[in-house]
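Lab meeting prep.
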Amino acid sequence: MVRLTHCIVAALVLVNLLRGDTDFWHRALGYAAAGLVLLRLLWAAAAARHHATGLRLSLKATWGYLRARAPRQPGHDPLGLWMVWLLWSLIGLLALTGWMSRLDAWWGDEHLHDLHASLADMLSVAVCVHLVSIGLMSWHWRQNLPAAMLGLTPGARLHAPPDQH
């Protein structure tokens, strides 16, 4: 579920960012991306019953991680979690502002359209930072993270040390 939603959301966002049109397909792809993010959040909430940490953000964990010089760990590291939440938040806000722009109350409101465009720009920057970070961390850890995320490498199923279960 995690890999599938990641790949589909990434494709939907990429197509929408490249197309840029505000037609039916732009809205449909945007709503589909937001719906998949919601599905992924529900999946994480269900999985949180079985895993202690889940997708919780923590400044303490982030500072500890940075002080330890970004050691490799299974799943998302603390910096990755911040990026996950940033990307998901931007996708959700884009869907919300896109939906609002179609309502009578905000029809033709340039401020809302400008906000939507700014959020799209922020998402573009965040995606670029995400991709560069994956490249840097792949080099730092000497592991092909995209292949691991897709389950194509032996390191794809990393497990936490016994003391972290």
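Slide two material, second protein:
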Amino acid sequence: MTREIFLLRHGQTVWNRAGIIQGRKDSPLTLKGARQAEAMGVRLAEQLAGRGEYTVFASPLGRTRQSAAIVCDVIGYPDDQITFDDRLMETSFGRWENRSHSDVETNDSETSSQRNADRWNIRAPGGENYSDVGDRVLSFVGDLPTEGTIVVVAHGGMGRIWRGMHMGVAKTEIHTLPEPQDGFFRLTEGVCEYIES
């Protein structure tokens, strides 16, 4: 048996809806976000049927805890058995967190432009770059069993970097990968399949 990973992003949050940068800060799920998590759980249950045992990991941030609890309720997995791992947290945006994207682009335009041109190497002030997050992903994946089914509830940016590295996407192109909240991804050896919920 080979390893398969189901990689989910949390549902929509209040700050997602408002266009505010979250990073390591947090805001709760909207009603739409809770419904998205529930829908992902329903679709995930279909995928997990007949696969036997599996494990669930999640980022410890509030929005992922909320989403993971909803997903686990739907799939029948005890939420007290979720393993929370700091390496799954979203990219840190440092001093840009709790600011709107437009505010950052207007009032910190030079650094914002530099980062947009080279996200792999340029960090938000006090934050992380894609390389930093990639190192966390590699560390996490390296600790996973090489066989079996694993469910991960994480974040848009962090998941984008993970998928990009998994598929061998050029570092300059990873930022173009989508960050959906109405579906999730199944990662197997070198393959990334999108599953709509």
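Talking points for slide two:
The longest strand covers residues 3-9.
The radius of gyration is 16 Å.
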